[in-house]
Amino acid sequence: MAQKRPFNEGKRHFKKNKKQKASQVAEGSNEEVLLADVRRLLKQTTLTDDEAKDEKELPEQHSELDLDIHSLSSTGDGLALRDGQVYVVPFAAPGDTITAKVYRHVQEESYSLADFVSVKKPSPHRTETPRCPYFTQCSGCQFQHLPYDYQLAHKKTIVEKAYINFSGLSADKVPAVGDTIGSPLQYGYRTKLTPHFDGPPGGRRDKRQGKKVTWEDIPPIGFMLKGTRKTMDIEECPIGTESVQRGMKRERARVRGDIDKYQRGATLLLRESTERISKQGNGDVKQEDGANVLSGNGESAEDVVMEDVGEYEHRKTCITDQKATSTEYVDDFRFDNPAGAFFQNNNSILPLVTQYIRDNILAPPHVDTNGNGTIKPKIKNMIDAYCGSGFFTIALSQTFSRSIGIDIAAQSITSARQNAMLNNLPDDSTQFIAADANNLFSAIPEGGFAPEETVVVIDPPRKGCDQGFIQQLLRYAPERICYVSCNVHTQARDVGWLVDGLDMADDEGLPLKVKGLYEIESLRGFDFFPQTGHVEGVAILRKKKVGTEVPQAAEKADALSGSASTVEAGG
Prior knowledge:
Blueprint: E1 4-6, H1 30-43, E2 46-48, E3 64-72, E4 78-82, E5 85-89, E6 97-106, E7 111-121, H2 148-166, E8 178-181, E9 192-193, E10 196-197, H3 203-208, E11 222-224, E12 231-233, H4 242-258, E13 266-267, E14 270-278, E15 285-288, E16 291-294, E17 305-309, E18 312-319, E19 325-330, E20 333-338, H5 350-360, E21 366-367, E22 374-375, E23 381-384, H6 391-395, E24 402-407, H7 410-422, E25 430-434, E26 454-458, H8 467-476, E27 480-485, H9 488-500, E28 502-505, E29 511-514, E30 518-526, E31 536-543, E32 565-567
Parallel strand pairs: 5-7, 8-30, 23-24, 23-26, 24-25, 26-27, 29-32
Antiparallel strand pairs: 1-2, 3-4, 3-6, 4-5, 6-7, 9-14, 10-13, 11-12, 14-18, 15-16, 17-18, 19-20, 21-22, 27-31, 28-29, 30-31
Helix pairs in contact: 2-9
């Protein structure tokens, strides 16, 4: 029997191709997340002496091979290990034996990318029949073959691995991750889809030459074919709401009829909008000329979905104009936005998220050790630092005496103020401010927002917060922080900074050490996108109880000595 030895011991697994430059991978990107999982699997592996050679003979590109799936990555892909090489295959399940077609080798990192071909021996976890006829081709969903409980358990591990791989925190600083909160709807939940089609071959050339662009055929209208830049034709998408699916059917027919009007490819907008109708005054639907027509807008009954929600009916339609106004209801709150603007795409889970935050955002009551009885939380105020059109500011407003939403986009602030008016929120308790990203917290009105009485909610884009914002947040030093994120990997990085501090440069380019102030109270995932590998993360942080009486800033470092400056946030 050949002698085994740890993977990382001895010679390199591969001789690095000198012509191949090291890839620049964005922080928190799928590539970086996948690479962390690949390296983790390889570290758990031992290789024979023969397998650990400098040169490894890999299967030819586009050749097929059978693979035993070891685990799922945080990107939703299956990972298989064969002869010291990790193979990354979509649409797989741990325990599967599948046939895959290799299309790329990343030799310096010992992994290969492959297309799913077929299941040779199914895993016990592969119990579900996908509802989508395009599953294993379309790049949208990864998990339609897996039971929902298994999906939720996997997404818990995504959060756990994010904090192991990207927070930089020791294990004792990261609490146990709570079970993932599932979506009430596992299909038919997406209130927005954006299918697209490409321009005709030679279209750009004809346009440059001043010729009219001609279409020989109707192009595929849909989403990307997995692992390619090619658009595949998709007639239906079962994760879209019923009104969005009807809109998709209607828009596909319109594009086919109007294709000669397009001079290039286009992205279509399909956004659900809801009108709330009281059952006591339900006179909006009437008969006209033998067909059901909704008064006021003239849509046919085929375009409208009616939904019973207790004392109301919701009349749902699909908007396709980017500049039109879409309306969403979350509990009894109403939100109007430009249809093309960002808003959460799974309305069914939003009440669960907002209730969870209400239940956890305030410090729990505690018994005073000096015998003064139970002390209630002293938090009175909320600052929503990436407020957008005001979702969290408005939905959480009743929990606080005063709330302020801040955003750098003036259009978002305009929408947020309109939404506050729609929900009858008084100006003296709920405000929205457009502020410079470099001085976000300086826009907070003086008085009434003492840090020790304030919680800050942050819900940044996928790239997370930049170091400048984290420094501002630590300087302001609110008592508690609620960090909501659509990318738990960049969230983990940012939370690591809030807990342990960060190294950065000051305005003069000198090294600056900003000290952390917080500890993690709880971590939990929410499944905003069932059937996919995405998970939303909610982290609750509280200020550390020791060492908080520190000055706002320390003196800058002596440039000649090369020592680092230190900034300690105010308490």
